[in-house]
Please model this.
Amino acid sequence: MTELNLDVTWHAGAPARTGGAAAPIQIHWADPTTVILRQNMAVNFEAPFLYLLFGDHTAFLLDTGATEDAARFPLRATVDALIDEWLQRHPHEAYALIVAHSHAHGDHVAGDGQFAGRPLTRIVGHTAGDVAGFFALAGWPDGVAEVDLGGRVLEVIPSPGHHPSAVTVYDAVTGTLFTGDTVYPGRLYVSDFTAFEASLRTLCDFAASHQVKAVLGAHIEMSTTPRRDFPLGSTSHRAEAPLPLTVRDLQGIRDAAAGVTNRPGAHRFDNFIIWNGPCRREAAVHFARLLLSRVSSRHRPS
Ligand SMILES: [Zn+2]
Model:
């Protein structure tokens, strides 16, 4: 098992929506076959993480980001260049690409269109039925599918709760669970709490019988201060919490969810927050915090 290098400083965004001179997509080779991409939060505040995993004959892209426009968010060009780079080191004719999604919210599928018509490319659909069909998960949300990239077999685990078609992807080569928006250091928005709890139990059971060295989600919204998140919509994250979580964190989220199962609202923990249901009051507080942070950053001498 190769260990991922997760020691990376992510671009912290810019005070204003229009600011930020950094590249629209930050690229980090976490090992010679694994790339972590992050959308610049100046392009879209969601600043999602995307993952590109290389096998001998197929690459697997998990998520396509929050922005459709290739001029502002050149995902296709970035992925093509990364695949070219990989193929220079590992020549292979007819190298394929699978474009999959942790789930189908807009900040994870917006770049799909950039891959339309790309040769040897299959794009997974957005509904739970599409995902179950693509990966041959006949008993959705039960069961685990295997995807063979050539020398690298991924396992796809249905994980509804945040979103009906959510999946978690396990990579045995690096011991990584890619958990999308189901588990990450931020606001865990739950639309179906019963399904969410079942998915967390499934993931903990999976982790108990597989080697899991890192749990990597799709966003960071917590700061390095325990219990403190960045305001919803913020395009600047100074002092972000680290991206990687552990199996212990995963178990902590499972247990925390069990403790708030019948309590709608936002529930704050050290390195994550569970939003059980719509949480309109909490969203209003965030909007006020965001406005305040914009005003104070404008008045801060630079
Ligand atoms: Zn998201």
Remarks:
- Residues 46, 48, 105, 107-108, 181, 218-219 surround zinc ion (CB under 6 Å).
